[in-house]
Amino acid sequence: MIELTSSGIRLAEPSAAAAGPAAGAADQDLRAWLRERRAADRSVVRRIPFAELRSWSFEPGTGALRHDSGRFFSVEGLCVHEAFRPHRAWAQPIIDQPEVGILGILVKDFGGTLHCLMQAKMEPGNPGLVQLSPTVQATLSNYSRVHRGAAVPYLQYFTGPDRGRVVVDVEQPEHGAWFLGKKNRNMVVEAAGPVPEHEDFRWVRIEQLAGLLREDNAVNMDARTVLSCLPVTTSGARGDGFRAGLLRSFADRGDVHGAAGPAAWIAAIRRRRPVRPHRVPLAGLSGWYATDSEIAREDRRFFTVIAVDVQADRRETACWTQPLFATTGLGLAAFLVRRFRGVPHVLAHARAEAGIAGGVAIGPTVQCVPANHDVPPRYVDAVLGADPSAVRYCAVHSEEGGRFHRSETRYVVVEAGPEVPDEQPPDFRWVTLGELSELLLRTDYVNVQARTLIACLKLFS
């Protein structure tokens, strides 16, 4: 069971009543509603040449792709050097979106059970278009109505003077490989008083969200990052099962080696191994080529920049065009897990990501698109070759559908086998989920892929 307390979300082992026939019927009803919302959506997304973009143009000289309003976002050129690797440098397009958006979930207690107000929202890059999203998912340009579209529903609960009790309000970075310094406010607000209804929104028990997180492409990235930031208190951590171990892991703020915590670890790596990004012209970007319909790497790996035309009947704006990043291949993001003193620890990786402040953040043990690498990155084989009995979680989730075109990642949690040593190189570290939860109270420490896995483990059922 999961409930809201004065200090956060209380996690406990599920009771038989919570998993009874009534809960099953409610889950089927939720899935039927989501299917109905998808069927009701008549949106059409089609690729177009750059010349057909409306209100977008390539800037003379630099070649940067910008919106005529100067708002929303732009596609720029970036060159990155890792100072600790003299020959490690690369160039790439990157999304520059300096606005801080709001990702907010409204929560409310109904009959002693925590519910979240979730939206069935269309994003042009989502596989299947419509996924479950936060109550509010909007950039500053969106909710300040630069597009002259309709107002964002329920925004007043996150920005107005009469909003309810704020449970979470923390800025978190988006994809550091594709955004330059982009952050969103991740918010959870407990509603006070009645909340008006809307056909595209539904109150969902948080246990139901846990179930949907086990399904492919049901809960979008923006919802997952907010869920990862939910503060938790634990109870009922009985027995030796994986669920009971997770409860102990969330409660454990100590370090397995008794050394300085993971924040100090990341700070030391940032000092010792600085990552230095600097802007360069998008036109003529080294290692990339441009046609009338895409900007792509010469080896066709990682991602391309494309343009789309969107006709949407259930958004604040009915039609628009925009660039999207189209990634190549199915990604893989995985935590290896091992128990120390009976408490599960995940193997965190200090990853260089040029778009995150400081250049390094905590990521999963494995984070890559395997097809992009001639030599598999460390521990890919340990994840992909794991015995099925060691896999604790596995689902495919799409990345941010407002900027990325059908970008999907397989998220996996695997209990580490004997081939994974306890002692790790300096850029890997065993940490508890409690330690990671502490870091989620700060910005720029935990990347978005790790946050998805934390959300899935936090709501594990």
Explain this structure:
There is one protein chain. The protein has helices at 21-40, 140-143, 156-159, 206-212, 221-228, 242-251, 262-272, 380-384, 433-439, 448-458; strands at residues 2-5, 8-11, 44-48, 56-58, 65-67, 74-82, 89-96, 101-110, 113-122, 130-133, 136-138, 165-173, 183-190, 201-205, 232-234, 275-280, 288-290, 295-297, 303-311, 319-327, 331-340, 343-352, 360-363, 366-368, 391-398, 408-415, 428-431. With 461 residues, the chain is of the alpha+beta class. Strand 1 and strand 2 (8-11) form a beta hairpin. Helix content is 19%, strand content 36%. It is globular, with a radius of gyration of 22 Å.
Helices and strands in order, then pairings?
Elements: E1 2-5, E2 8-11, H1 21-40, E3 44-48, E4 56-58, E5 65-67, E6 74-82, E7 89-96, E8 101-110, E9 113-122, E10 130-133, E11 136-138, H2 140-143, H3 156-159, E12 165-173, E13 183-190, E14 201-205, H4 206-212, H5 221-228, E15 232-234, H6 242-251, H7 262-272, E16 275-280, E17 288-290, E18 295-297, E19 303-311, E20 319-327, E21 331-340, E22 343-352, E23 360-363, E24 366-368, H8 380-384, E25 391-398, E26 408-415, E27 428-431, H9 433-439, H10 448-458
Helix pairs in contact: 5-10, 6-9
Question: N- to C-terminal separation?
Answer: 9 Å
Q: Give the class-level CATH name of the domain at 242-276 and 328-458.
A: Alpha Beta
Query: CATH-wise, what's the superfamily of the domain at 242-276 and 328-458?
Result: EvaA sugar 2,3-dehydratase subunit
Radius of gyration: 22 Å
Average predicted local confidence, pLDDT: 90
Count of individual helical segments: 10
> What share of residues is helical?
10-25%
In CATH terms, what is the architecture of the domain at 242-276 and 328-458? Alpha-Beta Complex
* Low-confidence sequence ranges: 15-21
Largest sheet: 7 strands, mixed
Q: Give the total of beta strands.
A: 27
CATH topology of the domain at 242-276 and 328-458: Nucleoside Triphosphate Pyrophosphohydrolase
Assembly type: single chain
- Structural class based on helices, strands and sheet pairing: alpha+beta
Report strand %: 35-45%
Identify the overall geometry. globular
